[in-house]
Amino acid sequence: MPNMTRLVEATMQVRGEAHHSWPEFLAALKDYSDQITADMVRCDPELLRRGQGMAIMAAELAGVLQDAPKLFEKIQIARMGKKNV
Hints:
Number of helices: 4
Distance between the termini: 25 Å
Largest sheet: none
Shape: elongated
Number of strands: 0
Radius of gyration: 16 Å
Strand content: under 5%
Number of domains: 1
Structural class: mainly alpha
Helix content: over 70%
């Protein structure tokens, strides 16, 4: 599994700077992910693999961004645990 610490930290910074527009950003990203998934049904077979990869990536990214506050808290707890050792 890739290390998402940097992505989560950057997400929390952006979220803090634009907290009023954050829910709309997440909704737009989720909608985009759903559209990519729906497009796979209509794509040519040779483009299906590419479409699947894009859909998976968009869904994963949307999930990380949505879960960033919880993930950030876990990262902070893990860091504090390392400092206390």
